[in-house]
Amino acid sequence: MFVPSRRSLLLGGAGLAAAAGLTACGSGGTGSTGNGTAGGGSPSGAAPAAGALPATVAHKYGSTTVTRAPGRIVSDGYNDHDAVLALGVVPLGLRQWIPEWKQGVGPWALSALQGQHPEIWADDSVPFEKIAALAPDLVLETDSGITQSDYGKLSRIAPTVAQGKGYVDYGTPWDVASLMIAEAMGRKPQMQKLVDGVNASFAAARKAHPGFAGKTVTAMTYMGPGNHNAYASEDTRGRFLSSLGLRVSPAVDKAAGSQFYAEVSPENAALLEADVMLVGGYGTAGSKAAFAKDKVLQSLDVVKQGRYVFVEDVDAFMAISASTVLSLPYGIARIVPLLAAVV
Q1: Is the pTM above the cut of 0.90?
Q2: pLDDT in tens, 203-235
Q3: Are strands 261-264 and 308-311 parallel, antiparallel or unpaired?
Q4: Are 120 and 96 in contact (CB under 8 A)?
Q5: What 8-state DSSP symbol labels residue 74?
Q6: Cα–Cα distance, 86 to 317 (Å, whole number)
Q7: Given this model, what pLDDT does residue 305 score?
């Protein structure tokens, strides 16, 4: 059975095109911190808060202890770079998730690059050689599904912070991931203020739209007939919707199991029924027209009764797919009005 990759599932199937003072549990060694500039440009942001380091960051595969501020950060987790950029630091390299994002980041983060150009890659697997060539003193993998074996290999290159413990792969909550990254950088108090600001925006949206409360919702990316994948409550889109007061369909959560999404076959399409549906229309130029002709989805009450939102704006849907401290305000401003119109 075909299991879509994180990248293909989130985008839609078509057209996709070692440090001194830093130790990772089990890595067996340290190197020099280095004081080079992030991304080859100006020095990286403000200094860590007094007393913030050393810090030990717990994650799925143990913990990573940081004793000095990392100066050469690589972000291989799909959206970990946003947390780094939010703190005024530009990574040396990062994963390019969306082909259209030529600098590797969404529109909400372009100015935070400070004119620098980190190396970017779109490898389906961890690009160990590329990461090693950048000589990082910290590697970030909180928004990922790396295996323990891959974590061990990365830890031999540089101290590595893996995905959060207790969450499905790719399912570390945005605020947890942001604070893990900030803690490794010695800047947790700064990040906490940013997290509080985003949470205040969610609270304001809930207050403005009390009708969201308790309504069930199904979120999916439309990738064509017969290819129906719905996102679970531990997925970024699921958490975004839950933060607005909506509730991801329990049937989808049950079907997803330990994954961040559920593959829904045409004969089980009833699993997608909910009070409201949010559909990301990325994958092909005619995805909305294809959705309108999809007999399986058009047979659902939630669709027949117009209780759905089809988001054609790639950046808007990817803002909640990314769900970072930088992207969420962008997503709230664009997605909430669309949901309000159908709820």
Answers
A1: no
A2: 999 999 999 999 999 999 888 888 788 999 999
A3: unpaired
A4: yes
A5: E
A6: 20
A7: 97
Q: Please name every residue paired with 279 in a beta bridge, in sequence order, or none if there are none.
A: 220, 310
State the burial class of residue 63 (Cβ atoms within 10 Å of its Cβ: 0-12, 13-18, 19+): middle
* pLDDT at residue 94 is higher than 60: yes
* Separation of alpha carbons 209 and 229, rounded Å: 27
Give a three-class secondary structure readout of 175-218.
HHHHHHHHHHHCCHHHHHHHHHHHHHHHHHHHHHCHHHCCCEEE
Read off the pLDDT band of 201 (50, 70, 90).
very high
Domain at 209-342: CATH code? 3.40.50.1980
**Whole-angstrom Cα distance, residue 213 to residue 166?**
27
Domain assignments of the chain as residue spans, ordered by start: 6-198, 209-342
According to the CATH classification, is domain 6-198 in 3.40.50.1980?
yes
Q: Tell whether the model's pLDDT for residue 259 goes beyond 70.
A: yes
- Residue pointed to by tokens 């600001």: 197
- The tokens for 1 are 């059975």
Residues with Cβ within 8 Å of residue 103, at least 6 apart in sequence = 110, 113, 117, 118, 120
d(CA 145, CA 103): 23
Q: Do domains 6-198 and 209-342 have the same CATH topology?
A: yes
The C-alpha torsion from 306 through 308 and 312 to 317, rounded to 10°, is 170
Q: What is the C-alpha to C-alpha distance for residues 244 and 241, in angstroms, rounded to an integer?
A: 5
Closest residue by Cα to residue 244 from 219, 208, 277, 292 = 208
Asked if residue 82 lies in contact with residue 325, where contact means CB atoms within 8 angstroms, the answer is yes
pLDDT value of position 145:
94
Is the pLDDT assigned to residue 238 strictly greater than 50? yes
Find the mean pLDDT for residues 19-47: 37
